[in-house]
Amino acid sequence: MGVIETSGLTKQYPRVTALDHLDVTVGEGVTGLVGANGAGKSTLIKILLGLVPATSGSATVLGHDVATDGGRIRALVGYMPEHDCLPADVSASDLVVHMGQMSGLPYAAARERASDVLRHVGLAEERYRPIGGYSTGMKQRAKLAQALVHDPRLVLLDEPTNGLDPSSRDDMLALVRRIGREFGIAVLVTSHLLGELERVSDHVVVLDGGRLLRSSATTDFLHATGSLLIEVQGRPDADRLLGQALVDAGLVARPADGNLIEVEVRDETTPDVVRDLTVDLGLGLVRMQERHHRIEDVFREGGAGSVQPV
Amino acid sequence: MSSPSETTDTGTDAGEARTGVIHDLGYRPYGGPRLGEGPVAWSFFTTGLRNTYGLGRSARSKVLPMILLGLMLLPALILVGVLVQAKNILDLDEQIVAYSTYPLTTQLLISVFVASQAPALISRDLRFRTITLYLARPMRRSVYVLVRLASLTVATFVLIGAPLLLMYLGGLLADLPPGRETGRFLGAIVGAALLAACLAGLAALVAALTIRRGLAVTAVIVVLLVSYTVVSTIQGIAVGAEQEVVGEVAGLFSPYTLVNGLQVFLFDSPDATPTPPSSDAMGVLYVVATLLTVLGSIGGLMLRYRKVSP
User: Fold this and answer.
1) Is the pTM of this model over 0.80?
2) Can you tell me the ipTM of this complex?
3) Which H helix or E strand runs over B89?
4) Chain centre distance of CA B186
5) Chain A contact present for B310, CB below 8 A
6) pLDDT value for B15
7) CB of A76 within 8 Å of any CB in chain B?
8) What CATH number has the domain spanning A4-221?
9) Domain boundaries, chain A
């Protein structure tokens, strides 16, 4: 059984349809929820927490119905909101302890758990300072810590990399992956940046305008395309020379980004042909690799043009 | 999902391999007890109560409530001192200032306390949107509102009741008739509780409607001080013009005169306003108005929080 299952889930606001007959199953591990701003990601999360009622359709989280069992679900789920939600005048340590108690942990256990999760998210001595003085990266870590303090079975992370610089973003993504793989907590992480989810998630769900565009394992998105990418050097027009030679040899070849040549693999001798032709032309073969899809290619095919690739 | 022990093992190995830090024990799942709705609400209540006196907050936020508590107790302490030392010289056989009069004498201090602490408790969660973190936990929305209000009410009750308790103990020490003193004291304590409920309810409602903290402080001060000043002015004029009924009706519009009138009617306390309710009908009106103030502000708060989006 899936961690999250929705069937025909619809949410209608007076002027917009945020979710439109959504059927999604989310399992263990890290699941990425991709979509442009306004695709319905945050609405879906709020419905899953039992905070916003669905217009029609149903959803279960960890086997509990969101319409009737919201309290049970919220005890088992951690939520990291997209927006700012931290009071400025308390320390991260006090806040996380308090939030642990609010999730039902006794005080002593809440303290121990808070100190554990703050260490995991990487907040050291600064955890004792008021949150008002934190950088965005530290605030995001504190937000993540409060979502983990009660050892949930599932965490819903809404845009955890929002507003972070590249290195903090890498740290956050590494943390997300650790939560899913090492901590054994199922993760649903949203983002409008595709490249991020490609790196951390086992499974990707793509939303577009409240509809399900695609749901499949990340590896399906990234399967080999059956062509080789080749980079040669030695002369300024090296790539064009080799490309012409490949076409003359009867292979399908075309220029690719960054002075690369893309060659379709006909049989197992294709790499040898490429190597021999390169040597014949007196060029240096820098690299030859299999070309993989990226998630954004799927998007281009799927027609969700408004999603920004990284 | 893997069993907890397996998770711990893999967590330990991977954690050490990844970071090489000797202290990294990996992720430890929580297997201890999880408390239900009641204990969680209790813990939320005590945290809120402590916070109104600045406990568990920054050193700066302790200053004002503690000074106010000190200032509230100081006159009572002096009165007790005089009563105990000079009872025979001055030929006293009752409290120098009646229990029910004390909150009116110190109304400025009480108003400042409520005005400064209601925003600290109520506006803060709305302004920083910390309320999202509470709503994403098992506690229901209505419980959140009631518990916040209870924390503020009890904090205010402690502020009003502490000097009364001091005076009562002083009175017993000075050999005032214990039966009569106990009766008066209990009446005054019921009055203090009702006054605290009225003040906290009104202040919480104003604080919930004005999210900015400075604005909320000002608004509560204005509502409480201006209403009291206007009411006592009208009562003064009404006595001068021999139109007591006008003054009695006016007394309904400030929590201080309202609750004092109720105490005069119900417990036969000495008058502290120029125009206490003189007829039974007016007395009943005071009781009804007090209940309406308390229930009305609870209802208003519920309506206000229904509109808070998670």
Assistant:
1) yes
2) 0.85
3) none
4) 18
5) yes
6) 43
7) no
8) 3.40.50.300
9) 4-221, 225-293
